[in-house]
Amino acid sequence: MEQGRLSTRVRVVEPGAEDGPVVLEAGAVLRAGGLVAFPTETVYGLGASALDEQAVAGIFKAKGRPADNPLIVHIDSFASLGQYFPLITERVRLLAAHFWPGPLTLVLKGGDRFPAVVSGGLGTVAVRVPAHPVALALIRAAGVPVAAPSANVSGGPSPTTAAHVLDDLDGRIDLVLDGGPAGLGVESTVLALSGALPVILRPGGVTPRQLEAVLGPVKLDPAVNGASGDAKPRSPGMKYTHYAPRVPVVLFDGDNRAGIVKRILAEAENMVARGQRVGILTCRDNELMYQGRGYAVIATGWRDDPGSIAAALYESLRCFDRRSVDAILAEGVPAKGLGLAVMNRLLRAAGGNVIKI
Length: 357
Ligand code: AMP
Ligand code: MG
Description:
The chain has ten helices and 16 strands. The model has no long low-confidence stretch (mean pLDDT 94). The protein is of the alpha/beta class.
């Protein structure tokens, strides 16, 4: 890895202090072309001025992100959207009214004011209004839209704390705003609106059911439920192994909870017989089944509460990298509600290593 050249500063932003000098200074750093990591209600983002081509190029460099994987432009309100997108359809207006600020990203045409590097040369620009007070205050302090992907090294689990950001990017960025743990723990839902039916390119914090209550039928891009996507990916992020810890992940997927546990225990024994160390990613319901055998067991939330699993997912995956295991045997979760986003991340982290039960 390249030696860090910058000395990355960390500044805590206490609740209620969003309009104070720390965030004002961070805004000035962005305006001057610098890179600032900040909390959002999904995960931590790595921001640059979306109007500054060179600054945006710096994001790709700091993360090691492929140039054709575009970023999300963060704005402070629906009222600002018209400044950058001349044509706002009724559908966009409706979605914004229901879900902004919040974890819904809309892929729109007509964002010609943004340099091509923001959209990976696609000609469409992804945009959202985040629902975190620090993120909103930062965008306002910067006075420019803020382009930001997640603040992690490309391909790895997203960061949900300032410490995760530093683990990945210390020395590569100017500043980290520490606003405590990000709430949701998975990224925004990315929705394409170019066709007759809206298409979910990436499941996230807003569920298909919530979207359908507002829009009517919504399609799920076929790549969402496949490890790498057999169809041509419409969101470039779909093409890369993603969200993956350094340790290989094997995903055990199916509806039969007892069957999954049995199969994982059998595979764990095989690993031990080969002299390997076992990591197990489970839920609180099943945790006890794996204990007392010398495995590294990490339990996220409860199986029937996907929100609790989402909140702990990336932290859990990152934990295994510190536990020196040879593989992570991971339980799948029901792909309902937020569980759809959790399963999408696990499938991508496993990179095709999926055992159907
Ligand atoms: P990240 O939040 O780090 O995952 O990065 C932003 C995500 O939004 C990636 O998965 C991108 O592929 C997706 N995205 C951004 N812009 C577009 C676009 N114009 N069309 C389709 N997907 C996009
Ligand atoms: Mg990301």
